[in-house]
Amino acid sequence: MTIKKNLVTQEEIDKCLRYVSNSSNESVQEQLLKLLQEMEITLDEPNVEDSIDGTRLRVTYNTTISRRREGMEEHPIGFQYTREIPVDYSKVPIRLRDSNTTASVSGVNDTIPRNNNNNNNNAEDTIIESYDELEKGIPTLCQVLGLLKRIYFMPEDFSNRLAVDRTHKLRKIFSKDEILTFPSIDLSDKAGLIPI
User: Fold this and answer.
1) 99 in a domain, yes or no?
2) Assign residue 95 a region: left if phi > 0, alpha if psi is -120 to 50, beta otherwise?
C-alpha cells in the first residue's frame, strides 16, 4: 500500500502566497487562497532512479489533482511529477553502508572497510549530504501549480492524445482567470508533469 501525501498544507499555502505577494496585488492572493482551499494535490511515494551514465538522479511522484466546488468533486486528473537532479558521486555519495560506523566517501571505495573514529563524523555528513541532495526532488506546491499553469497554456500536441485529454480536463477544472493566479516557474527548471 502506498502512502499518499497531501501537498496542499497550510505551510505550503503560506509559502505560495508569499511567492505571489512579490509580484501581485491582494485580490490575486485572495483568489488563489480561495482556489487552494477547494483543491487537493496528493503525491504517492517517490520512485528514485539513477541514470545509466551515473550523472543524475530522476525522482518521480504520481500526482493526483482534484477540486471540490459547491459540494461537488471534479474528476481527479493524474500526472507524474518528474525531476532530474545532477549528482557528482565523487562529492556527494548517495549509496550508504548499513553500518553506522562506516561510510563510503567516494562511492567507489564501498568494499574497503573503515573502522576508525573519524569515519563516524564522515558517516553523519554523508547521510546529511545525501538526504539534502534527494530532498531537491520533493515538489513544492508552487512548483506543481506553476507546471499546471505551463500545461494549461501549452499548445496542444495532437499526436499525444493522452496529453490533449489531460489539458482539456485541466481547462474544465480551472478557468483562465483562475489559472492566471497560479505562480509562474522558471522555464529552465528541470521538472515536469507528464500525463498518466
Assistant:
1) no
2) beta
